[in-house]
């Protein structure tokens, strides 16, 4: 689904990602784990076409995409949804308003937007919170809103940037369960970054271990973390 070839990215003298090769199979839940500063966010921004690498190539469904610009780049990005540790929601809008946002940008009619927002609220199980302001929502509920917003335009890949790191263990489990269910029902590919082994073990099929910008290990979770 996504392939990185020899990807490098530096910030001044800091080599955040060094010559990384990585391949995300379609339909996988692909985890990237590593300590703080290992380069996970940088790698995720390169994969999600938010940032261009200094060197190397990014392929999306066999097509080279790191060299795209303008409309073509925006079109590929539309196939990618993203959620974050801090949710990145608009506090001026209620739950439904946040979910509607990308649909408004996409130019859908009001009626179509309402129908789609209803579907999405149901999908993430917060129909009763439709008109809640963000301050009235728990962390888990905010992440559900963010997931609904990310899925609004039917992306093929969902990128999760430490999506459960701000949540307590029980809420973390419920959000991971939701992500897995959506993965199964929508047939989306999921790429997540985390510093928590428990996240990898509970939802991921594949994993890459990132250490100082280098992939230390990569493969099927059971094989990578099997006791010797
Ligand atoms: P992780 O997500 O694993 O914590 P990051 O990709 O955020 O790692 O960071 C990897 C390295 O790159 C760190 O040393 C970090 O300080 C540096 N870095 C990341 N983004 C920037 C940036 N925008 N400007 C300068 N340095 C950065
Ligand atoms: P920044 O990265 O500086 O926040 P953006 O243009 O990405 O700037 O985002 C501006 C605002 O729009 C932010 O508050 C962000 O949470 C929100 N936002 C970004 N992407 C989306 C999206 N796909 N749907 C709804 N809101 C979004």
From TrEMBL:
One of its GO terms (biological process) is amino acid transport. Pfam families: ABC_tran. The keyword Transport applies. The keyword Amino-acid biosynthesis does not apply. GO terms for molecular function: ATP binding; ATP hydrolysis activity. It comes from the Bacteria. It is an enzyme of class 3 (hydrolase). InterPro entries: AAA+_ATPase, ABC_transporter-like_ATP-bd, ABC_transporter-like_CS, MetN_ABC_transporter-like, P-loop_NTPase. PROSITE patterns: ABC_TRANSPORTER_1, ABC_TRANSPORTER_2. Keywords: Amino-acid transport, ATP-binding, Cell membrane, Hydrolase, Membrane, Nucleotide-binding, Translocase, Transport. Residues 2-228 form the ABC transporter domain. Its EC number is 3.6.3.-. SUPFAM superfamilies: P-loop containing nucleoside triphosphate hydrolases. This is Methionine import ATP-binding protein MetN.
């Amino acid at each position: 689904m996504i392939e990185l070839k020899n990807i490098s990215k530096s910030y001044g003298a800091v080599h955040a990602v060094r010559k990384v090769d990585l391949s995300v199979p379609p339909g996988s839940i692909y985890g990237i784990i590593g300590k703080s500063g290992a380069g996970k966010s940088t790698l995720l921004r390169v994969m999600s076409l938010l940032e261009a690498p200094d060197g190397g190539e990014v392929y999306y469904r066999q097509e080279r995409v790191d060299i795209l610009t303008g409309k073509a780049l925006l079109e590929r990005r539309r196939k990618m949804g993203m959620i974050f540790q801090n949710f990145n929601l608009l506090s001026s809008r209620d739950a439904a308003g946040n979910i509607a946002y990308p649909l408004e940008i996409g130019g859908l009619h009001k009626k179509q937007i309402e129908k789609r927002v209803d579907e999405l609220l149901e999908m993430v199980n917060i129909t009763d919170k439709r008109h809640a302001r963000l301050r009235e929502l728990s962390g888990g509920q905010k992440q559900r809103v963010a997931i609904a917003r990310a899925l609004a335009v039917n992306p093929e890949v969902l990128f999760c940037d430490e999506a459960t790191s701000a949540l307590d263990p029980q809420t973390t489990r419920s959000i991971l369960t939701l992500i897995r269910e959506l993965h199964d029902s929508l047939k989306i590919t999921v790429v997540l970054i985390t510093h928590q082994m428990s996240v990898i073990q509970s939802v991921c099929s594949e994993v890459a271990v990132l250490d100082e910008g280098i992939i230390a290990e990569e493969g099927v979770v059971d094989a990578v973390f099997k006791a010797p």
